[in-house]
# Entry
Amino acid sequence: MTTGNEILKHLSSIANDVVQRCALTVGISVEELVEEFESSFFDNNNNNEEEEEHGSYGEGYSRGLVEYCGGKAVKEFCQKIDQTIGDGSFARFTFDLMLAWELPSQAHQQARTENIGKEREDKYMPPKATMEQDDISFSIQTLCHFLYVDNEPSVGEEAFVWFGSLVVLVTDVVNGGFTFESLTASTRNRLHFPAYDKFLKEIDKSMKHLQKQEIPCGVELGDDEFILHVEGTASSSRVVRHIGGTSWPGRLTLTNYALYFEASGVISYEDALKIDFSKNIEQSVKPIATGPWGAPLFNKAIIYESSELTDGIVIEFPELTSSTRRDHWLALTREILLLHQFLSTFNVKCPIQAWEMHARTILSIIRLHAAREMLKLSPPDPTKFLIFALFDKIPKGDYVLEKIAESLKTASPGHSCSASSLLRRMNVREAMISSLEDEVTKESLRGPLDNITSLESAINKAREEEKESAVAKATTTHLKEEGITESTMVLMELLKPVKTVLPRFQEILMWEKPVTTLNVMASALMITYKEWVGKGIAVFLFWVVAYMIKARRNRLGERCNEIVVSKSSDKSTSTREMQEANIALLKIQSIFLSKAPKHADMVMVALIGLGVIVAVIPTKYIIMGLILYCFIMTSKLTQKFGNNQGGNRRLKEWWDSIPVIPVRVVDKVPESSSST
# Structure
């Protein structure tokens, strides 16, 4: 074994300083700390003897030492997290720890110095002697500003996410990359200490602010129920509930279990209306437009719908311009709803594991509040800080949720830096978890997630898919901004009779009338098996003739002198349908022209397979199989015991990731284009 002083020579200056501070925090000497680390490091290293003999301390050793020492020291900081955040020691130490993890050895530090010097040579050119005095002054000020920023130590994404695996206060390992992108969007994806310190202080401030909020009237919160957001008070923005044509202002409170609305009374608030997200029923929260007397004029509200309610609960967040408040509330409520769906879907019955997931969700919402306060001029996307709303949205997100559910079984909720422990030590009301330390006898130095290899792989894959999907969706943005002409409005008006028929087919397909569905399915199978398709078409034509004769007898033609199309009618639906049709046609064209090679390859393979099936199997059996599949997959029995949501989600993600060919509208086609 080597001594601590010999080891520190191979570390970078920041790593050297961090290791010594870790030893001071833990209360042992550096030599003892290094010896503890080496006893476990070399036991797990197959080439330990050779590495010791040659005195080779590579990246693995240096970074491993920083991780080990940092893990022990951070655990001590978390024991008194409420004090260390207030005095700034937690921010300073953890930021230096991330710097040390990023630059653990002398080789890393030297490489970073060389890269910075090269960037400065490429970026900053000496001012010309002929420049005017004002230009010289401006250039010097700009140069000094950038030199100040570049000279300040900064942290990258990998170090930030790694720290999230130790302490979930600043970020969660599952969405740390997305959080980092939002925090560093204006600083070239580098996190500087002033921003990091400000973020931590805003987290502490938001947590204390939420603890001071009043409990809704007539409600007794559970021991593990925590208030996450409140609006509609005298010191905050208005919240209005719409019931038919009437509007009721009041106070809206969100917890990790429910949403409470209290209508404003003469003196105080009335008893709260509770929307319970923890119930295992069909429920959803969606955006909706509201206005005077129910007119859909202002898109600034949300609607809650469930199988227990005949009418949805509409809550509006009035704003002059944007719908930022509505989007914020929508993201928060969907996050809580998706949390309980996650616990139900993956059958998380253990109270300790369930509360750990609650605690991580609570911290993610608090981080979102802190980021919104920190970035007031440009509020971040709420889903980038949340867990379930994020992975419900991005491609392959359901795979990540599966890995999160698996990681809960191997996590250590009693760890001093876990989400539940942090909330308890920051004086968050929670009685259920008070006996957790008695149940967890062995704490991990790695934090709440030890085995995160498969989880990291799923997250990285989801991020790659999300970036590809974002690029594809960007190609359709200009198409969704186009308007709608009168001819299109006439077309949509003429198609209304067809739209009225579709709900009837949907009733049959969704087994809303089982007897009718069985008759239709049996008839379709019989016609296909007996090869009576021609006779079926003949019956349909006779039915059309009968309908025309009926219309003539009722003199419908004499009464229908014109078709009236109102310009004041809702154009949003028609516009959206036409835009989706255009986008669908452009995506199909992209596939056939191999503008999207990966998708074109998949389509070609599918078409070849389909061609082989059609060539081998008689057509009538294929049609019968499709009929049975459609009716069986929509039956309640299949929906209860089977789960086809994964396949539908994969298909939607695949479709959304197809880029479209750009469209340019011109007054006249150029001669070169027309000739080709």
Q: What stands out?
A: The chain has 31 helices and ten strands. The longest helix spans residues 351-374.
